[in-house]
Amino acid sequence: MASPRLETYCCPNRDAATQLVMDFQPEVFCGVCIGSASVSLLLTILQLLPKKGQSPRKMPKASSSSTILLLISICDILGGLGVIFRSSIWLGFPGFIANISVVNGTDVWPSTFCVGSAMWIQLLYSAGFWWLFCYAVDSYLVVRRSAGLSTIVLYHMMTWGLAVMLCVEGIALLYYPSLSSCENGLEHAIPHYITTYAPLLLVLVANPILFRRTVSAVASLLKGRQGIYTENERRLGTEIQMRFFKIMLVFVICWSSNIINETLLFYLEMQPDINEMPLKNIRSAALITWIIMGVLNPMQGFLFTLAFYGWTGWRVDLKWRKREIPWESMSSSTAGENAYPAPVNYQSNIHDSKKISTTDSQQTDEAISMLSEGNTSSDERLTRSSPIYQGW
């Protein structure tokens, strides 16, 4: 799982609250992390592989939304691999990890492994948070027809740049001036926790707002496509809204325990003695949420694929085939049929106006399809209701 307490544990003079959770059933905790991350990893890969009898997912060339969804899954997969590797070393070589607690020890490899593995996990999950924020931004830009292939470069720069900058800055402030001197006060730890949880809180606050505005813009697009708002279009807008709701629901389920746990541990740190009897319930709640984090954090990858694509099935097809996008073939055939100029200027003007209307409708259909990607029924309804499909 991902928690700033993992970096804090690398300090030999760690605080009492961190020591409390890290010493609570470490074998059970590592086993839970390995089991949850392994199941999530296998199911996520299974979800992403093409299935027999189904066409591979392929989005319009001007879309960056499908790329962002794939990058979110990749971040979760690599983060899960880091959780499995770190927990396996902790579980298989307890003596190696015990050397981290030795102040002024001569063996630097335990501390190097501790810091490196914790940074790997934090960096990838933080990048996943930033990509999820970019997905919300891109969804809104898509319906506003302001997104395309050029925006994915900006998303890469923002996501990886901010994730690396915040991770390095937080670690540097935590371990300043050295590993043996960190955690002498909250002034070391608080900046590290802020840089860790800033992208998480950004997704919790900003994404619902962006998703809500996107849904409103989708409704306007569907109404303006043909001037009417049919039952199919209303159902398609509801499905897009439900998809956004599922994404935020998965995010809240997987990471709310981290916020609760961190709040409880910070409260314990501020007490003179965390072992006092009045604090027993708080200690128990902190330990329970610590185990819950070990289960839910690595499961985010698989749960996100369910929110993105739904359950794709078990029958894997490793033969990749390019799926023809309905509006591409139909628009090309329409363009071929109408390639000849009209003999009268009046008919040519009519043809130009129809061409403009067809282009606008095509852009609208592509925008809606990007948001409902992975939903076969939505794609079929969209294609049947498209003016291009109807032979405009």
From TrEMBL:
The keyword Transferase does not apply. It is found in: Apical cell membrane; Lysosome membrane; Melanosome membrane. Keywords: Cell membrane, G-protein coupled receptor, Glycoprotein, Lysosome, Membrane, Receptor, Transducer, Transmembrane, Transmembrane helix. It comes from the Eukaryota. One of its GO terms (biological process) is melanosome organization. Its main location: membrane. GO terms for cellular component: apical plasma membrane; lysosomal membrane; melanosome membrane. InterPro entries: GPR143. The keyword Transferase does not apply. Residues 371-392 are annotated as: Disordered. The chain crosses the membrane at residues 28-49, 69-93, 119-141, 153-178, 190-211, 244-267, 287-311. Interacts with heterotrimeric G(i) proteins. Interacts with ARRB1 and ARRB2. Interacts with MLANA. Belongs to the G-protein coupled receptor OA family. Receptor for tyrosine, L-DOPA and dopamine. After binding to L-DOPA, stimulates Ca(2+) influx into the cytoplasm, increases secretion of the neurotrophic factor SERPINF1 and relocalizes beta arrestin at the plasma membrane; this ligand-dependent signaling occurs through a G(q)-mediated pathway in melanocytic cells. Its activity is mediated by G proteins which activate the phosphoinositide signaling pathway. Also plays a role as an intracellular G protein-coupled receptor involved in melanosome biogenesis, organization and transport. This is G-protein coupled receptor 143. It comes from Aegithalos caudatus (Long-tailed tit).
